[in-house]
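User: Could you write out the 3D structure of this protein bound to coproporphyrinogen III? I've included everything you need below.
Assistant: Certainly. Input first, then the structure.
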Amino acid sequence: MSSGTPVFLAACRGEPVPYTPIWIMRQAGRYLPEYRAVRAKVSFEALTRTPELAAEVTLQPLRRFALDAAILFSDIMTPLQGMGIELTFEPGPVVREPIRTRAAIEALRPLAPEQDVPFVLETIRLIRAAAPRNVPLIGFAGAPFTLFCYLVGGRPSKEFEAARAFLYSDPQAAVRLLDHLADAMAAYLGAQAAAGAQALMLFESWGGLLAPPQFEHFALAAARRTLSALRSRGVPLIYYLNQGSALHERLAALEADVIGVDWRSPLGTVRRVLGAGKAVQGNLDPAALFAAPEVLEREAERVLREAGGQPGHIFNLGHGIWPHTDPDAVARLVDIVHERSARGEPGA
Ligand code: CP3
């Protein structure tokens, strides 16, 4: 690691680090009383559209915990509002007119980030001005297929029946919509990097619903389109795949530096499948934060051991932190990960 490179960025590039960096998906959110205090006064949507407030809640967890990265406070659906999609957060996203026809796909506007989501770019500038230098800012977007699920399905769902049926009933139209979303997210993430985001992450929360051939043909092809367009930005690219255990072998050739892994797949296995060129991020079960301190410690050590004590591991949860988590458990987790990994145990 060259001196002065933040530990998180070095780990993304697979360089040796003095300790394993940690950040937590949804680290700004309802489990923090200071977040709830802000949300008591404004809606979630207003919060994402007011740069001073979005920057403030992004910084809140950094004041409490020695986290190694910040993540922009926004939502995967926010840029779609900029493309003319009407939606509300209840609290999950609900699309007023789900997209089901070729005409609706053709009517979608391309995204022009500076005009359509200037508040996101301003939020990034405010965070960069205020965040500690050794805590890089992660920008993010929804992966095209995950956005497709909400756009076609219309609301949160376990199976996303309408979206998955669409892949089979009109595959060409589905690819057209996915390509459109892939290009919009490439423009969106490119603008985030230009505004100061130091790593870029795609959330593929629903890719794990697909069988391998459909995952490859629809979800992965579209994600690849987004990531390829971002390669030249020179910042680490992270692809988080939820429920991906049957799909990891397909990710070895993806243009991402880091693969985010849910808690169902042991990191050792994932690393073997991905090969040496990729870093991994994860993958503690969010439920482990409800365990007794010694059990949490044992589980965190197990994740470190699975990661193998090799460079290229960023500690995280396998999915977003739950709203009723005790913040003190997060404080304990951050300390355990830093202390154990700095001592070089139990990795080796
Ligand atoms: O701290 C952070 O991680 C950054 C903020 C962030 C939010 N959403 C804020 C949010 C991030 C990275 C997201 C990503 C996101 N949004 C994903 C991908 C990750 C995942 O969870 O799989 C998805 C699928 C969404 C869509 C979405 N937005 C859902 C399903 C929900 C409701 C879920 C819930 O926790 O209730 C939202 C709303 C949302 N996005 C909230 C927050 C803090 C809750 C809003 C509130 O405060 O009322």
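The pocket of coproporphyrinogen III is lined by residues 25-30, 39, 44, 71, 73, 75-76, 89, 91-93, 140, 156, 203, 205, 242, 320 (CB under 6 Å).
User: Perfect, thank you.
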